Each structure stands twice: as C-alpha cells, then as structure tokens.
Amino acid sequence: MINPHFLIISLGNPLPAYSTLHSAGHFANRGLAQIFRQPEWRERRLGRSKTCLVSQGPKYTLVQSPTLMNRSGDFALGAWKDMCDKHDPASLSLVILHDELEKKLGDVALIHWTRSARGHNGVKDVLKRIRMEYWPTSTFARISIGIGRPPERDQDTVVRYVMKPVSPETRGLLEDVAPFEVARALAKHEENWRLGKQEDQSKRLD
C-alpha cells in the first residue's frame, strides 16, 4: 500500500507579468490549490532552484515554475530532486501541468509522460532532463489544459496567439472551471498508480 505524495509543477511564463494563454498551467494550478484547500502560496527555494511559489500540503506540493517557459527543465529537475531527497521516491509522483494548443479552451487530459510534446518547447525541455528510467519506483504524468489555436498554423501567428493577454472570462475558465477537471485527472492518475498501470491516458476525460 502506497502513501502517495504528488509534486505538481505548472509550466508557464512568470505571473503576473505574463498573464497569457501560454501560462494556462499556472492558472489551473492556482485553482487547484483552492479545490484542495491547500495552504497559501509562499515563496520557497527548492534545492538549488530559483525561488518559486509553493503551496505545500500533506498530499500535494503545488509549484509554479518561476522560469520562462522554454527553460523549464532545469527548474523542474531541481525541484524533483529536492522532493526525492525528502521522501521515499516510491511514494512520489511528478505531474506537469501545461497548456495544449491541440485541445479546445478549458479541455483537460491526462497524458503519458513520454508522449510527444507536440512542439511545446517547455515540455520538451522537461522531458529532456527528467527521464523516467532514472527513478523506476516513482510515477510520472502530464496533464494538459487546452487553449485552442488560431486557424493559421504558421509559427508567428501561433506565438502571437499563445502570448496574448487572457481576458477575464478566459482566466475564469482556466482558474475556476478547468481545475475541477485537473483534480479528476489526478484522481485517475492515482488510481492507475495504485493498480500498477502505466498505460497512456491521453484521451479526454469524460
């Protein structure tokens, strides 16, 4: 029987300076803290990492990556190693929250850790630095939050789209509605963990 603890790291550019669609993971993480009745967010240093915002609870450690999106890997690795130094890795799971262009705004999906990053540079950087095989007793997962995408697929248009400021309505959806689906995805991930499953759970949760 495991006594699980989850390190949940949201990727995005630092808030509030970058309150954009690309920071959807941060908004969802903030909402998740409310759902789980977590302690207040506080500045902490994880290992040798930069100071970051952390909501530390008995089961969930919620963390907002303080780095720019494309440089997320070093921070995530440092935070994960710090957690492994303090807990039995067999009781730990690392979950990354990130935005997803291929899903409708607010849609949430539980994704296998090694599934394609689909061009998401922040996810690519994390996957490059954190390899599941180095921690064989731990579990890993990603949870994506859909932000939609523009009709045009050229890079400049996509960059402008993900970096545009979020409206109050969109922020409400990402921070107040999507986190309930994120909590459901976490519950499914924990169920799979307890059952010893590692299969791809990339289908949208119904």
UniProtKB/TrEMBL annotation:
Single Gene Ontology MF annotation: tRNA binding
E.C. number(s) listed in UniProt: 3.1.1.29
Keywords tagged on the record: Hydrolase, RNA-binding, tRNA-binding
Enzyme class: hydrolase
Gene3D superfamilies xref list: Peptidyl-tRNA hydrolase (3.40.50.1470)
UniProt xrefs under InterPro entries: Pept_tRNA_hydro, Pept_tRNA_hydro_CS, Pept_tRNA_hydro_sf
PROSITE patterns: PEPT_TRNA_HYDROL_2
PANTHER family, per database record: PEPTIDYL-TRNA HYDROLASE
Name this polypeptide is given: peptidyl-tRNA hydrolase
